[in-house]
Each structure stands twice: as C-alpha cells, then as structure tokens.
Amino acid sequence: MLPIIRFDKVSVTAQNKTILYDISFAVYAGEKAVLSGKSAAGKSSVLRTLLGMHTPTSGTVYFQNQSLSPQSVQSIRSCTAYIGQEPILGADNVREALLLPFQFKSHRNHHPTEAQLISVLQRLQLPADILNRDTQHISGGEKQRIALARGLLLGKTLYLLDEVTSALDSQSKQAVFEVFSDPQLTVLAVAHDLDWLEYSTTVFEMNAGQLNQVK
Q: What confidence score (pLDDT) does residue 182 get?
C-alpha cells in the first residue's frame, strides 16, 4: 500500500534559517500519527510544508504518490482539514460558521441538515443550542471543536491538527479521540499532550528540525 503522505529527505529554509533537516517519513491511510517534541522543534513547519506554505530547499514531498507542485497542493487542500490551535471561524455565530463552506460552488450540493449539524456537535461534546451563540462568546476549546465539526461535515478524510486539544478538558478530549479513531480518517497531529502519544499508532519525535520515529 502506498502512503498518502511521504517526505523524502526534505529540508526547508525560511528567513535564511534551516527549519527542517533531511526529514523522511510516511503516513498511510487510516493512520493516526503525531509529531511530538519541544516548542520550535519544527513540528508545525512539517504541516505548513505539506500545505505548500514552505518550499523545500532539497528533497521531495509526495501526496498520494505525486510530488508537491501547485496542482498537487490544491489537491491536498481540497481533501484536507487543517485546524490550528486558534482556528478562525469566519462568521458571527456558530451556525453560520459551520455552514460557511457550503456557500461555495464545490460544496453547495452537500448542504447539511439541521439533524446532521446537531449530530456532529454532540459527537464532539457540544450542545445543540451552541448553534445560535455568537462566535465571540465561545471558549477556545469550543472553537477548536467547531472547526473539527466543520471538517467532518465537509467529509474530509485527512486531518492536519496543530494542538487542537490544548484547551479541552479530559472528557472533551476523549470525545475528539473517539471521533478520529474512525479507520476512514487519516490524522497527522502536532501535540505536546501525552494523551496523544497513547492515542496515536505512530509517533515521530522532532528536535531542532530533525525527526525520529519512536513508535
């Protein structure tokens, strides 16, 4: 089986500083992989390189066995949900935030029903009445889960998650782990949280831009 994501001896330089050194790893369909390590170790830079925000100075990034290019970057973004530690919801209330992507032509015919909205929120330990709340008046942990819910509603199968459980209590965090245990979903996560290491099938440890597989 070919990997969905593969880095082959990838180095990246940004602002005259090398931030990734000779990185090689692969992530397969359904795998739950985590990038662990101290702050500024290069974990988030791996995700940004995959999304085309950094250009490799050497080596090659592959997505579904195609090398990274402007065309393949668009392919990655079309099937990927990238969710950061402080996601931008882009709407005044939660319902509008969840429905925002369905205004675009590519998703217009897949508009979720009210029951689907409520179901995905409940799976992530969020109450149905949050749909009518102002996004300025919800917590960081609620924002993280709403961003995850939006990816699920869009039917994304590849999730690039950057510290998305950092503001969650243990119950909410467990709900996230249960949702992403789905074998149809592939996860590459950046996390300091030791609970992620237990949840993940593969652990990559990063240190000063270098990577080692430890699980």
A: 94
Quote the pTM value.
0.92
Compute the C-alpha angle 186/187/192, nearest 5°.
Answer: 165
Q: Which of the residues in the chain have pLDDT under 70?
A: 106
Burial (0-12, 13-18, 19+ Cβ within 10 Å), 95:
middle
Residue 143 and residue 133 in contact, taking contact as beta carbons nearer than 8 Å: no
Read off the DSSP letter of residue 210. Answer: E
Q: What is the DSSP letter of 10?
A: E
Q: What is the pLDDT of residues 127-183, one digit of tens each?
A: 999 999 999 999 999 999 999 999 999 998 999 999 999 889 999 999 999 999 999
DSSP 4-63: SEEEEEEEEEETTEEEEEEEEEEE-TT-EEEEEESTTSSHHHHHHHHTTSS-EEEEEEEE
CA atoms of 142 and 124, how far apart (whole Å): 9
d(C-alpha 186, C-alpha 188), whole Å: 7
Helix (DSSP H) and strand (DSSP E) numbers for the chain: 7, 10
Could you tell me if 172 and 203 lie in one domain? yes
Q: Which residue range forms the structural domain that includes residue 91?
A: 81-155
Same domain, 1 and 75: yes
- Residue 197's pLDDT is 87
Tokens of 50: 């995959």
What are the structure tokens assigned to 43, written together?
């974990």
